[in-house]
Predict the 3D structure of the following.
Amino acid sequence: YVAVKIRICKCTANIINRQEKSAFLVLNFFWTMNIDWILMLVLFTLCGVIALLALIYSCLILFLPRFHHINNIFILNICISMLFCTIYFAIFFYMSYSYIPQSTCMIFLMCYHIASVNIPFAFTIFSVHRLCTLRFHTVYFFKTKKRVILCISSGWLLQILLAFPYIVIGQ
């Protein structure tokens, strides 16, 4: 009876040791995992979710006729800005771990400055448009799609012009 009990205890001890060893290996794997890799995984997941939501909302605005309103054109601009920024920063953070040639680096620098101010500019343009439509509610010019396209295109042009000196200085 004692020999059987000792044998059972040794088997149980071996099983416990194996479980502890496997738990240690799993724990060791997580401790040795690079924190940069985890953060990049979280970053790419967030960028993917944001880009997907912006793309879905943009498609709704583009393809459903009831959303073809002047204010929704500005919201479409915000969605496109978000899409541009998330795609750019995902590529930027992925490429930051590899060698980038000088010519590509200048393009990345210009796009970095555009992407940094893209969403705030989109909200600013939308806010200025809302201010003008409320302040000058009798003027028809502020209610036309030409004005909306003019505002959005001037905002994008201003972003490009503001980013251009960094390229000239960088060279």
